[in-house]
Each structure stands twice: as C-alpha cells, then as structure tokens.
UniProtKB/TrEMBL annotation:
<protein>
    <submittedName>
        <fullName>EAL domain-containing protein</fullName>
    </submittedName>
</protein>
<feature type="domain" description="EAL">
    <location>
        <begin position="25"/>
        <end position="279"/>
    </location>
</feature>
Length: 293
C-alpha cells in the first residue's frame, strides 16, 4: 500500500516517509531506491507545472516545474519521498538531467516572457559534473537564460556553502535567476541572502496555512515581504489555497502568489491550454531584462 509514501508530516513543511514499522519503512525505501536505479526514468518521470501569479495585473508570470513519478511497479510516488532517496542513492544528477530536459522542452514552446522555475537539489549544486550538464541542457533547449529560474533551499546551500555559492554565481553569470525556496524554514539567515544574492525569495507555505488565526505567521510573512522589497528582491508566497488567505496576503503587501487557489500543478497539455486560455501575454515581465543580455 503506497499510500504510505504520500503521508506527509505537515509541520515545518517537511516530508518524511511515514510508517509505524521501521523495518517496513527501510524495505520500502530500498524498493524505491532499486526502482530508481533500474527504471527507465526517462519514460516514468514527467513534469507538472504550477502557475505563479502577479496580483497587480492578475496574470501568470511563469510556472514552477515539479517532478512527478509514475512507477509501473510502485505506483505514483511523491517528490518529497523520491528526491531524498535519489540523493542518497546517487541518482539525483541523472534525475535532474532528465527532468530539466523535459521541463525546458515544454517551456521552449511558451510565448515570451513566461518564466520557468526549476528546483535544484543540494547535491546538484555541489556537483561540477551536474552543473556542467545543467548548463549544456539550458543551451541546447533554446530557452533564453533570462526566462529560467533555479530554486534552491538554504539548507541545500549550507551543505557546502563555498561550492554551492560558486555554482549559483555561475548560473547568474549565465543570465539565469536564483530563488531561495522554502524561506523561513530551516536556518534562514540574512547573511545567506546577502552572500547568495538571490533574485527572489519564496516564503514557505507553512506560514500561509494558519495565516488567518496566527498573528505570528502574519508577522513573519510581512517581515519577509518587507525585507525583500528593501533589498530589491522579488518575493513569492507559496501554498495559497483560499480567498481569505489571499486577502490577508494582499494587505501584507504581497505581489506574487503560488498555490492551489490559482492553479494546481498541471501536465504539459494542461499548462499549454492554461497559457492559451488567457494567461497569454502577461502585462509585464517577471523581471526586467538583464543589462547586457
Ligand atoms: P517546493 O519546491 O517547495 O514546491 C512546492 C510544493 O508545494 C509542491 O509540492 C506543490 O505541489 C505544493 N503546493 C503548491 N501550492 C500548494 C497549495 O496551495 N497547497 C498545498 N498543500 N501544496 C501546494 P510537490 O510537487 O509535492 O513537491 C514537493 C517538493 O519536492 C518541492 O517543494 C521540491 O522541494 C521537491 N521537488 C519537486 N520537484 C523537484 C525536482 O524536479 N527536483 C528537485 N530537486 N526537487 C523537486
Ligand atoms: Mg520550489
Ligand atoms: Mg517551496
Ligand atoms: Mg519544499
């Protein structure tokens, strides 16, 4: 019963593999690991796209690419489950290459200036080999670097700050953007923001969940939004599900929103339809064009 795998520990926005039985859990983890190693991942992995919306003009500015795995033997498995296992099994580089290739293939057909956001794992950032593949995949895709954003978490960067920040700087040199994902969880630090110079901050959805009843969550969101504005960074709030949450977020000065309220992650056909059905021609770009690009 693979419902097991999708059980998430909602607190902290972190996922764990949930099982009452430690041995079962280890066995299932190893089955997933085996499947990852031996599957034709190019066929079994696909990418879902979730819209990111600008509240000022009520338009979609881009989409986040989210990994989906439909295993013929194990069924559908959540990325919160298989990504950590892929990292542990040294399969993440291969997975990143497959997913990025697919995501950019879809994004290549979108009209300008829709952006595509892609999540990089900690291990990707510290692997020179993977980062070189990433560069090659971007070049081969034909998608303009200024339309590509990579999402990284601070936790990822902390594994080897120097190597990771070097990789990030290199991506930025190539004209791509960096978003600090899941901001506010883990060891959020102003020094990370200062040293990594991201273009965008994504506020973790754990703060949005109780925004209506928890003044502290509202204060945290307001503080991060204000900080982003003062530093000249874009800021996205993730996980917005209700109109009530949206209206509070507006009052806190929020401009960019991602969440089920405006769209669930969609397959390629659905996202292309989403674009055709009205998201087309956003009023302004997600970012101003970079000087020299
Ligand atoms: P993330 O990058 O923070 O992605 C946002 C997650 O929040 C996605 O879960 C998305 O489906 C979910 N979400 C968005 N709006 C809402 C909402 O309104 N309500 C709720 N309850 N959830 C919402 P998903 O797709 O399960 O991905 C989970 C995590 O797995 C991602 O978190 C990211 O850390 C990782 N991940 C996903 N795809 C990739 C990938 O291609 N590569 C890597 N390295 N990690 C990935
Ligand atoms: Mg993300
Ligand atoms: Mg996030
Ligand atoms: Mg996450």
């Amino acid at each position: 019963d693979y419902a097991l795998y999708t059980a998430k520990q909602q607190r902290c926005g972190r996922a764990i593999i949930f099982s009452h039985d430690h041995e079962t859990r280890i066995r299932e983890t190893s089955r997933i690991e085996q499947a990852l190693r031996h599957s034709n991942l190019g066929n079994e992995m696909w990418v879902a796209f979730q819209p990111i919306r600008d509240l000022e003009n009520a338009r979609t500015i881009g989409y986040e690419a989210l990994a989906r795995w439909q295993s013929p033997t194990l069924g559908a498995i959540d990325p919160d489950v298989f990504i950590p296992i892929a990292e542990h099994a040294h399969q993440i580089g291969r997975l990143t290459e497959i997913l990025l290739t697919k995501a950019l293939k879809t994004a290549a057909s979108w009209p300008e200036p829709f952006c595509i956001s892609f999540n990089l794992s900690a291990l990707d950032l510290v692997s020179r080999e993977t980062m070189e593949s990433v560069r090659q995949i971007v070049v081969a895709s034909g998608v303009l670097p200024e339309r590509i954003e990579f999402e990284v978490t601070e936790t990822a960067v902390m594994r080897d700050f120097d190597l990771a920040s070097e990789a990030i700087a290199r991506l930025r040199q190539l004209g791509m953007r960096i978003a600090l994902d899941d901001f506010g969880t883990g060891f959020s630090s102003l020094s990370h923001v200062h040293r990594l110079k991201p273009d965008k901050i994504k506020i973790d959805r754990s703060f949005v969940r109780d925004i209506e009843v928890n003044a502290a969550s509202r204060d945290i969101i307001r503080t991060i939004i204000d900080m982003s504005r003062n530093l000249g960074l874009a800021c996205v709030v993730e996980g917005v599900e209700t109109e009530a949450q949206l209206s509070i977020l507006r009052s806190l000065g929020c401009h960019l929103i991602q969440g089920y309220l405006f769209g669930r992650p969609m397959n390629e056909a659905a996202v292309n339809q989403h674009i055709a059905a009205g998201a087309r021609l956003p009023g302004r770009r997600a970012y101003p064009p970079k000087v020299g690009s």
